[in-house]
Design a protein that fits this description.
The chain is mostly helical. Helix content is 62%, strand content 0%. It contains 17 helices and no strands.
Length: 285
């Protein structure tokens, strides 16, 4: 595991040296939630981190950066418990680092809930793999209170429908807590015409949404029902949203596992170099 930690820390150091952290529009919404300002859905459903962190920047950084450090390491652990070799598991760890929708965007944009949610997806999958469904459900529930997508990707990654129980807190929040009627940032155009605006943002980028996976495009050589369904759900989530990479790369655990299955180990170093410095990776921003 020490090598997985070193790989993760190395990539975070690369980001720290080359990228400047900033507030995105979503960052401002989540930070405002920490002050008790209501938000529209789906932000209203993502209440856990704003409730815990409030306006404490240090707390937000602990959750955000801490989760980013742990995601590649826990991906390594998931591969280990699934029976993959040490080398394959370390490759999986390194592949996650190069996925911009997982690492880059969640490093640059402050105060997001995605990295913690992705971490909970992996923890839930490990628990189910170890035949501990109670822990798997708990991780799914906790993650879903931070980001409502977690229970869906927990079920897809673990391939266990019990993870869908994590959607119960989301449903309760949706039914009991009324969202704001207007967007905090005044983005009325998106509320009125989400599909139209999404199309404008996505126009001429449909080929790039495959290249941004880097070496993980090899996963298509190990197509399974699980991978196909996960990718379908991931890309479907982009309809009506202006974001792309940071949405569809929630599928990363299943994609990375499929990539590891066909990864040519003899070409590890050049392929990982291409993957980490993929020219399309900034498409996530």
């Amino acid at each position: 595991m020490i090598y997985a930690i070193l790989i993760s820390l190395s990539y975070i150091a690369l980001l720290w040296l080359n990228e400047t952290r900033q507030e995105s529009p979503d960052s401002k919404r989540y930070f405002a939630m920490g002050s008790g300002i209501k938000q529209i859905n789906p932000f209203n459903l993502r209440w856990l981190l704003p409730f815990i962190c409030r306006n404490n920047i240090t707390a937000w950084n602990v959750f955000n950066i801490g989760s980013l450090i742990l995601i590649p390491v826990v991906m390594y652990m998931l591969l280990i418990v699934k029976g993959y070799s040490e080398t394959q598991s370390l490759i999986g760890c390194a592949l996650v680092c190069g996925l911009s929708g997982v690492m880059l965007v969640n490093y640059i944009a402050k105060y997001l809930t995605d990295s913690f949610g992705m971490l909970m997806v992996l923890c839930s999958a490990i628990a189910f793999q170890l035949n501990n469904p109670i822990a798997g459900i708990i991780f799914s529930c906790i993650g879903s209170m931070a980001n409502e997508k977690v229970f869906i990707y927990s079920a897809l990654t673990s391939w266990n429908s019990l993870a869908l129980i994590g959607g119960i807190p989301v449903l309760i929040r949706y039914l009991l807590v009324k969202p704001a009627k207007t967007d905090y940032l005044g983005d009325t155009e998106y509320l009125k015409h989400p599909l139209k605006l999404a199309h404008q943002f996505h126009k001429n980028r449909y080929f790039t949404v495959m290249l941004v996976w880097g070496v993980c495009i090899l996963a298509l050589n190990d197509m399974t029902l699980q991978l196909a369904l996960t990718l379908f759900v991931a890309y479907l989530s982009c309809i009506g949203a202006t974001d792309l990479t940071r949405l569809f790369q929630w599928a990363f655990p299943v994609v990375v596992i499929a990539t590891v299955n066909v990864f040519p180990i003899e070409y590890t170093l050049p392929l990982l170099a291409i993957h980490w410095f993929n020219g399309e990776r900034r498409f996530c921003l």
